[in-house]
């Protein structure tokens, strides 16, 4: 399940840029519609192309629970030029995932988020240098403090990569925060896999952390290394592609 969702959400579990390049080798479907609009019906808001509703890959209706989210998806369809490029429509792709894959397997997806929390990035601190340790504390401790003060979930920290088993009581608190709604669950799962942290994803979902702050926190180690050794062009492009997915998930949480 994790592998499938990462593949759909990010283009490729480890390299969305490579996946996008591969997709570009195949011909994209031509834009066949003139007008894009939003329809309202039982169960939500649909995307209409020349008056006909868009369907998901599994042939269900592509729909959103709010007009705001439907209009944001409609804007993606309207922005297509002569061809339809799914990689330029992250909101549509994520909602497709929520409807086709998360809805029938919501428990398995929720379990994945909790499993991430068991080895969350925020628990594992570097053994030096002090500048990196200070930066980790600055961006990570506030999230752990929020989990403890607001939700009563307290975790063990470790130095290095040695696994530390987290308290079952704390993980139960995490499970209680995982959204049951498939759309929000898909967004939380996406942020979890993109950042490597279920706690960051849940903090964004609960409004305790902005998407920008979560993204910065997720890349503390990477940014530190970039400062020391310089940037890698491919890594920078890959990161930009993943940020697009992150922003789409945050937008789903805000608008859905």
Automatic annotation (TrEMBL):
It comes from the Bacteria. Transmembrane segments: none annotated. The keyword DNA-binding does not apply. It holds the Pfam family ATP12. InterPro entries: ATP12_ATP_synth-F1-assembly, ATP12_ATP_synth-F1-assembly_N, ATP12_ortho_dom_sf. Belongs to the ATP12 family. PANTHER family: ATP SYNTHASE MITOCHONDRIAL F1 COMPLEX ASSEMBLY FACTOR 2 (PTHR21013:SF10), ATP SYNTHASE MITOCHONDRIAL F1 COMPLEX ASSEMBLY FACTOR 2/ATP12 PROTEIN, MITOCHONDRIAL PRECURSOR (PTHR21013). This is ATP12 family protein. It comes from Xanthobacter aminoxidans.
């Amino acid at each position: 399940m994790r592998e499938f969702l990462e593949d759909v959400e990010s283009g490729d579990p480890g390299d969305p840029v490579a996946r996008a390049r591969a997709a570009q080798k195949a011909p994209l479907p031509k834009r066949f519609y003139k007008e894009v609009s939003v329809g309202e019906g039982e169960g939500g808001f649909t995307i209409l192309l020349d008056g006909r509703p868009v369907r998901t890959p599994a042939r269900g209706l592509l729909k959103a629970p709010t007009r705001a989210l439907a209009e944001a998806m409609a804007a993606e369809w309207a922005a297509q030029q002569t061809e339809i490029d799914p990689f330029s429509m992250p909101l549509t792709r994520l909602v497709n995932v929520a409807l086709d894959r998360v809805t029938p397997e919501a428990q398995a997806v929720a379990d994945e988020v909790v499993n991430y929390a068991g080895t969350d990035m925020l628990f594992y601190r570097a053994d030096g240098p002090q500048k990196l340790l200070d930066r980790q504390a600055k961006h990570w401790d506030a999230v752990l403090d929020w989990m403890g003060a607001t939700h009563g979930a307290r975790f063990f920290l470790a130095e290095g990569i040695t696994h530390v088993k987290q308290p079952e009581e704390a993980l139960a608190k995490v499970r209680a925060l995982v959204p049951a709604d498939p759309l929000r669950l898909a967004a939380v799962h996406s942020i979890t896999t993109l950042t490597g942290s279920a706690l960051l994803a849940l903090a964004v979902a609960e409004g305790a952390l902005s998407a920008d702050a979560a993204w910065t926190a997720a890349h503390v180690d990477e940014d530190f290394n970039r400062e020391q050794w310089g940037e890698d062009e491919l890594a920078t492009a890959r990161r930009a592609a993943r940020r697009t997915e992150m922003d789409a998930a945050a937008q789903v949480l805000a608008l859905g």
